[in-house]
Amino acid sequence: MASKVDPNITEKLRKLGAGDLNQCYHCGTCTATCPLSEDGVSFPRKVLRNLQLGLKDRLMESPEPWLCYYCGDCSEACPQNAQPGETVMAARRYLTSAYDWTGLSFKMYTSKAWEFGAILVLGLLVVLGFVFFHGPMTTELTPGGGVQLNVFAPAETIELLDWTMGGVLSIFLLSNLFRMVWKVLGEDRKKIPLKFYFTEILTLPAHFATQKRWKDCEKPGMHRKHMMLVFGYVTMFIMIFGFLKWFQTDEVHPVWHPQRLLGYLATAALLYVTVDMMISRRRKELQMHKFSHSTDWLFLILLFLTSLTGILVHFFRVGGLPMPTYIMYVIHMAILVPMLMIEVPFGKWSHLAYRPMVAYLHQVKKKANEAASSKK
Ligand code: SF4
Ligand code: SF4
């Protein structure tokens, strides 16, 4: 089948963190080493081959880049130091930007001015929003000794703004996801019986919630850390978007109250994992952390700062410190909003949607192929 050729793909990949593709002479050691490569979806050599030939369409249709979890084993084994793991990682960045119809993702992946500029502009808009529209600031404490945060930033209003932001995010993310599904299914979408989309549907939440392919990578601690990260941000996401009026209260609950316990556990998980990963990237001990793109750092730093400022708001509030609570709340929102608006649809966080979706489509295709071969 004909595939569109992009002669500039190597140059684009280089900007996105790929290794030197010219070094690869296709010995296949990397694919033999990869713990996740299997019959029918063999990588990373195949990904490198498509890139060397500039086969953009072939790359867009291939599930392989998303089935790699970047353990780094292939890069360690490569006799040519061609960095296949880093190249597959760069291919995922390329694909994230290629699925994005707005073009913003590619700009933010390839230009620090765009990346930091977008964060700063959105952060500034949030600050200005609070400067002009905040509620009264009062030093009068609640009967339990807490700060009246909800007079300054009523949970009802914040919740409405959250849902609006969530709606905008969903439009971008789902439309990009649809483009990915269309490409990955390719011509197979006409052949796959509808029933397999239903029978295999649980693959989707299973991969999202458990990240179970990390286990097959056999990197000590990595699966556990990713599970902690998922627990942290999913818990926060549910509380912020679904139960904000329960989560953002003025009342000072006892420390064992579920509202506080869940908040502490999720924050501790997020702080622990982000700090651990930043240290690992700084030390470059693990292969997967030897080469960090600026977006890898930004993702970790924003998540760390969001968690830190969030817990500081809480401590200032229950500690009865009005001005620090109000100021920290504005700072927290000025980091949280750009992080979600930029990272979820256009940046690294989009892999939370793409990876489980590809695992699901891969499973659907596998079952359809098995059913077709059993009929022959
Ligand atoms: S990336 Fe390295 S290990 Fe893989 S096929 Fe090329 S030369 Fe061989
Ligand atoms: S980084 Fe790990 S999972 Fe990804 S292709 Fe290399 S060996 Fe396979």
Q: Which structural traits does this protein have?
A:
single chain; 376 residues; mainly alpha; Fumarate Reductase Iron-sulfur Protein, Chain B, domain 2; 2 domains; 20 helices; 69% helix; 0% strand; binds iron/sulfur cluster
Can you walk through the features of this model?
- Helix content is 69%, strand content 0%.
- It is mostly helical and 376 residues long.
- It folds into two domains: 91 residues, Orthogonal Bundle (Fumarate Reductase Iron-sulfur Protein, Chain B, domain 2); 265 residues, no CATH class.
- Helix 9 crosses helix 19, helix 13 packs across helix 20 and helix 15 packs across helix 17.
- The longest helix has 31 residues.
- The chain binds iron/sulfur cluster (2 copies).
- The site of one iron/sulfur cluster (SF4) has 16 residues, from helix 6 and helix 7.
